[in-house]
Amino acid sequence: MNKSRIPVAQKDVLSLLLDDHKRAKQLFKDFESAKDSATKEEIAHTVCTELQIHTELEEQHFYPFLRQQDPETFGDLLDEAKVEHASAKSLIKQILAMKPDDDLYDATVTVLGEYVSHHVKEEEEELFPQVISKKIELRELLDPMMALKEQMQERLQPATV
């Protein structure tokens, strides 16, 4: 994909989402290689928090905007994404209620990683290229998405003692 031909605001919104995808992939890799339960728990909680923020950005701003722009092109992909988000949210809720020494903790985090990997692949290989090819102008999404991200980061960060 030739980024020089992508409008700046579009690139910024897609870059925001792509950066989240890269970060989640890295956190899941870090979880796999972590040796002690405290590190695993910290990584799992971090990825869960970041995924909660990411899914809200997409559900509140990105997906409704795309559906409004071209329901025929984006409808099926957005419906699948919504179902994938629901599955991920269920796993996130389970993980946040568990401890690293619980049965199935590692398996639950691993399955979440597999769901996220599948979801990311569909967005990056199907959804985003369609946004670019249709020249969907995303400028109006950037500020509200950034504001929501900052608000959620503040709200979801654990309190330091």
Provide an overview of this structure.
By secondary structure, this protein is mostly helical. The chain contains five helices and no strands. Helix 2 runs antiparallel to helix 5 and helix 3 (about 70-95) packs antiparallel against helix 4. The longest helix is centred in the N-terminal third of the chain and has 33 residues, at about 35-70. It is elongated.
Key structural traits:
161 residues; 5 helices; elongated; disordered N terminus
Brief characterization of the structure:
The chain has 161 residues and is an all-alpha fold.
User: How widely separated are the two ends?
Assistant: 46 Å
Roughly what percent helix? over 70%
Indicate the radius of gyration in whole angstroms. 17 Å
- Biggest sheet descriptor: none
Topology:
Elements: H1 8-33, H2 37-69, H3 71-97, H4 105-133, H5 139-156
Helix pairs in contact: 1-2, 1-4, 1-5, 2-3, 2-5, 3-4
